[in-house]
Predict the 3D structure of the following.
Amino acid sequence: MVLVVRSDLGLKKGKIASQCAHAAVLCCMRATTGSVDKAKLDAWLMQGQPKIVLRVDSLEAMHLVTERAEQAGVIAEIVRDAGRTQVASGTETVLGLGPDQSAAIDALVGHLKLL
């Protein structure tokens, strides 16, 4: 699983951590709905639930990765903040990708830098 954080928002560490947790939960919930995705979820769980956190510099860049993931059949879930602390309600903060094969996710985000 990969979590893609928008660096342009200037979120504090704790906020990033909670938004990434939201993304991971959303992706896991989505993976339980289909047999292929469930198999990928089971494999990911057996591997120790690896997660990598990357960054993008804009909302547009996050949307581009989301579109590419959807075209490739990779689970893509965007976290929209409730707006109680650092950003306005509905702000898209983190994109969760997977669980899926490493090669499928790497093809989408291999060019991005670690957070």
